Amino acid sequence: VFGASNFPLAFSTAGGDTAAALAAGCPVVVKGHSAHPGTAEIVAQAIDAAIRKLGMHPGIFSLIQGGKRDVGQSLVQHKLIKAVGFTGSLAGGRALFDLCAQREDPIPFFGELGSVNPMFLLPEAVKARGEAIAKGWAGSLTMGAGQFCTNPGISVVIDGPDADAFVDATTEALAPVGAQTMLTDGIASAYRSGRDRIAAAKGVQELLTSTCDLRNATPYLFATTGKEWLDNEVLGEEVFGPLGLVVRVADFDEMMKVARSLSGQLTCTLHMDAGDTKHGQALMPVLERKAGRILANGFPTGVEVADSMVHGGPYPASTNFGATSVGTLSIRRFLRPVCYQNMPEELLPADLR
Amino acid sequence: VFGASNFPLAFSTAGGDTAAALAAGCPVVVKGHSAHPGTAEIVAQAIDAAIRKLGMHPGIFSLIQGGKRDVGQSLVQHKLIKAVGFTGSLAGGRALFDLCAQREDPIPFFGELGSVNPMFLLPEAVKARGEAIAKGWAGSLTMGAGQFCTNPGISVVIDGPDADAFVDATTEALAPVGAQTMLTDGIASAYRSGRDRIAAAKGVQELLTSTCDLRNATPYLFATTGKEWLDNEVLGEEVFGPLGLVVRVADFDEMMKVARSLSGQLTCTLHMDAGDTKHGQALMPVLERKAGRILANGFPTGVEVADSMVHGGPYPASTNFGATSVGTLSIRRFLRPVCYQNMPEELLPADLR
Lengths: 353, 353
Description:
Oligomer: homodimer
Helix content of chain A: 25-40%
Order of helices and strands of chain A: HEHEHEHEEHEHEHEEEHEHEHEE
Number of helices of chain A: 10
Largest interface: A-B, 54 and 55 residues
Largest sheet of chain A: 7 strands, mixed
Number of strands of chain A: 14
CATH superfamily of the largest domain in chain A: Aldehyde Dehydrogenase, Chain A, domain 2
CATH class of the largest domain in chain A: Alpha Beta
CATH topology of the largest domain in chain A: Aldehyde Dehydrogenase, Chain A, domain 2
């Protein structure tokens, strides 16, 4: 299990991947993230204390800290490692995925590699309550300095006066949000690179800009047209932080084209009123093939640990389309079915006797 | 879905992989195996007739025949192909697995790549009914000219007079089995290469030999010691056909060593009586980590399509340790979970309304 930079507790040493693997009966080796070695150590000591108190085998849990990339690379290639859980960047995750696939005995790499979590704003909803949606988006986009995997980075809206009002309301809601401290210097610097990438793209308009330095992040808002977005893959790449991009499409047909052109996503969101039902129904078969979780009239940043949760999706949201890294189903990644045929009672696992 | 050479009906055009993928709602493209193009065509015509009769979309099923390896390679790299089902050789399967993993958007390759299906004969059972086990083994080993993925190619037995009697009884049971026609020239030629590989290995004794040519296969029986088997990986590689290898181990400790050194298997079998329970219990934690299916006092060649069936296992038995290619659970390979949050009734799939 690789600790995630953005969740020092919920997705690192004793986070969701570790809990799922332990629950499946697997000993776990955690590679601590360099962003929070102290937190990792404190949590590992708590786990170690629990293991001693319960008289469990000490090999059930290990934490490895420090070193460069070669430490993680060695771990995923070790013959006793049989599966990997990872939350992080596309580049880093893909490199480890490749090592897992290239082993003499390939092992599954369950990686959650990012998502832009697009929201589709349908016309009746934008007309009736565009300002409320704008305020909600600004809150979701800037929560925790935008450092959520499920941060909704893109809003797709049909061009016109209602879209203008939505854009104005979003700008107004984001403007007073001050600088927030990001988790690491690396995340802050990657945020600014992402911002520069979007700002430099052809046909992109700056709606809200600011300056941020050191480990600070301030919100940015950009707009582009559906045509420009469809022509430029860069505009669909994740910028990790409080940066929003409004994609103004010419009509609903172009909104469908944007949906069809999406890469795999953790979430897709619809904002819709009763009068938008037909458009929503038309989008659903597309969105169901693009995302692990589809929401209506909400914001995706809150991820409940529940039976029905899917935190995964087609690549690169997840490297395994059948897997979720949050929720009850997450244990399945680390389970292996065994069929017992005609076994004497005494040889069956205790639960099956 | 790649048609399997050894199951023109049950694991080819309309076989288990196709049924599982269709049941999961996926359109299927079958790459027919060159061993049985006529059978593939007849079955495809039946599927096509059913599609027309039911008014289903004709794109739900396609059969592609002919060509060299580049046809299959192109298929697994096509952007509309999202998962692959395969039953076949380790070399051929691994090449396709690698192509799937190397895609810009990697896709799962569900490959069943072979198994030697070892049987562990515990001492009380061998003493009490070694001859019956020998007869059963001979039947399972030669059924269908040994062309089953679950063919039990290896029997591990503790050396001594009871082992001698078991070996004699096996030789006697196999001797009268005549030549059987194999499915293809390629399978027959690979069988003879495998036989030569075993016969040439150090410390291997020929117990039953014969000559077979053209597309014929006659049974062969070899014996070796636990020590030789542990020292030579070649002896653990699958020989597809009616060839048996008896591994005479010095004692139960050496039997445990043989079990621990196994690569992933579709099946492992125990032959045991009540007095063998402790030995069986000692083997179980090892075998559960080596095979997808564990049997007692039976033979693995019959694979029932049932809820509890697992036809898979650690690599190379399967490329995905969580997958089975036979039984109800086989559908899971082609399913992708989607979470619906706060969706209006009208946008949910009909089954969830």
